[in-house]
């Protein structure tokens, strides 16, 4: 009986190991299938092609990066210098706030949905306020009735 239990435990552990291997195969099947591998290999080949081009043009890229973007300065009349400085400050502020502006623009399509939810919440709030008002009136009526029946203070 002990030998049979040991054999059954071995078979069980073997089955557990096989199921674990099958689970791993299932989880990694999309990585090991030829369709995905060929696409990844093509992407890697394109990327390495770009890198090889960059390495080939490294000298010319370094020279281009070392050159100033503009060979001459823009002639601006002296009385406009202040305006140019203000304009540059406005551009810098705009660029700094650009992300928040883009986020705001992204929320505009959902604005009507949010307004509908807000209106629905307001209607529920008004309904609850009406119920609270009715309950408070009932409490006041009961308090008045109680004071009329028992004129002596019970404090």
UniProtKB/TrEMBL annotation:
- Tell me which Gene Ontology terms the entry assigns under biological process: centrosome cycle; microtubule nucleation; spindle assembly
**GO CC list:** centrosome; HAUS complex; mitotic spindle microtubule
Q: Highest taxon of the source? A: Eukaryota
Family annotation (Pfam families)? HAUS2 (PF15003)
Name the record gives this protein: HAUS augmin-like complex subunit 2
The root-end lineage is:
Eukaryota, Metazoa, Chordata, Craniata, Vertebrata
